[in-house]
User: Fold these one by one.
Assistant:
Number 1:
Amino acid sequence: MLFRTLAVPAAVAAASIIPPRATCENPTVRKEWRSLSADERDSYISAVHCLAKQPSKLGLSTTQYDDFPFVHNALNNDIHFVASFLPWHRYYVHIYEQALKECGYTGAAAYWDWTLDSDDTPKSSIWDPVTGVGGNGDPNTPVTIDGYTYKCVSDGPFKDLRPAYLTDTYVPHCLRRNFNNGSDSIGDMFSPRYTPDAVAKIHALPDYDSFRINLENGPHGAIHSAVAGDLMPATSPNDPLFFLHHTQIDRLWSLWQQVDPETRVNDFSGFRTQNKTGQPTPAQATLDDIMPMRNLAKDIPIRDIMSTQSDLLCYTY
Ligand SMILES: [Cu+2]
């Protein structure tokens, strides 16, 4: 009987075996942190704490949470101030999003749109202890590491995290933030570099290389420097805010690609390696360059990450 049921005409059988065209039909929508529901936020936060309890997937003695800053630190000079800055971090955020999902998170990666806060960043609701990510480091709970004094985050959902690494050295410590404007004062937290106008100017740039350089050196760097503490060094993924920040960077790249998707989904150029003084002209990056992931995930070519609406990624903003 079973054979009879399956005895369909050859043409029909063939059609049912061929999978539908490889496309992303229902992309997930990544949202701004403050437009997540309370349940979505709780789910995200629980998953972050879950990662901090899972064993390392890299064979380290630390947790899966620490795998991310560990790898980012190890690759620091290969993935910043080079063409692959945007694709590498797009893949990295995706890997983190997958890890959160394995830890029970039911939503998509979320972003912090700092342009919304640039009129008064230090007072932004993103720092709210309940609806945000907690605030600045607390001057009343200083901690000394290697002779330097740091301020620990003492409120919000991430205050009890104990990131394990500074560079590749095991130094468990509190989550640190040290808001500033490039001096000892908090000031405007470099907000002129990420106002809606400043970002619109970058969005208007016509080619990938200028877009990447201005986005990386402008708003991207400004936020890392302004929040400081753990968000500043090569282990900056120690602060969960890193991923909200880099999802926003990815969003801006995606919005830029959407202006002319057919061209810009293949627009990729610039130096492959950092342009150190005295070197001959460094090699130009190509779409076939492989992104190193140090076993955090499979190494794949840049070409595979250029579109957010592929089978691999399948998301939109
Ligand atoms: Cu980075």
Number 2:
Amino acid sequence: MDASTQTNAAHLLDWYDRSARALPWRSPPGSPPPDPYRVWLSEVMLQQTTVAAVGPYFAKFTGRWPTVEALAAADEGEVMAAWAGLGYYARARNLIACAKAVAARGGQFPQTEADLRELPGLGAYTAAAVAAIAFGQRAVVVDANVERVVARLFAIDEPLPGARKAIRVRTEEITPDRRAGDFAQAMMDLGATVCTVRSPRCLLCPLSHACAGRATGAERFPVKPPKAAKPQRRGRAFWIGQGGAVWLVRRGGTGMLAGMRALPDDGWSARGDGASEPPLPDAAWEGGGTVRHGFTHFDLDLQLMLYSGGDWVSFPAEAGEWWPLDQLEQAGLPTLFAKAAALALAQKEQVGEYLVR
Ligand code: SF4
């Protein structure tokens, strides 16, 4: 690292010492590193999710499962239910697999980036972040905030995602040997609080003297690729209520929202195939409105079908369970199905016992 890079790192760390965000999974600047379990858990939760949204989930998980061994021994259904609402449910399944692997090592996380990568579901970013923040290893940590700061600092003109290679090389150049964890968190904080997506506060920035992007209009970095339209998918979900309860199923082990508790549906998928018949083919169904939900790669219009057939229905016990309506919040429904349930319940309020026999 040359002298100017060292000076820039020193400026940034000085700023971090004064301005670090106080977050429940962190240690204050310059103090011993935080518990690797808390670092790892927070980094998994923070992928594609804001700090504000993660806060209550982090408190819930660490309150209920304070160690990686406790999480490894937890009932998987309970972990998935506790995760409900955070989205990207593959993360929760990977979380369980990784916790079990660490528990099998006596509860000790490996300390190097390469060894962390060997854990199930632990990708390049999370391995670098845990190595740097929990173990003080020099690692190149590039999240969305860091990506933005570096693209602006070096005025990287290439659009994403191609620019990621240059951003990584530049981040590697400016990462110091000492206080690598604080440096990574300082870059994250700078992106979150100063070098923001809109209206970056360059006058307050500790790196403004070295920033190439500032002079040419910082907001245009990182350069975005042309936007591709998301495909629109359609599906149906089925609300079957009786006796103050609703019929819920556990989704299969693969595919969207795998392993989550849900309303029965017609097998909609990201590819747009898989539509099947309602679970009660002879029953009467009425349209109950449509829920719109955006996934990363497609938008879904989920039509809600309300069972209004006259017969008391029964299902094989292994297919699902009758879930009490007054405890629906504890079912851990993912957001899509929570929205559908809210729509059904709003109509139930309008039409009295129409849905519940
Ligand atoms: S000077 Fe402005 S654009 Fe450059 S890194 Fe700082 S806040 Fe971002």
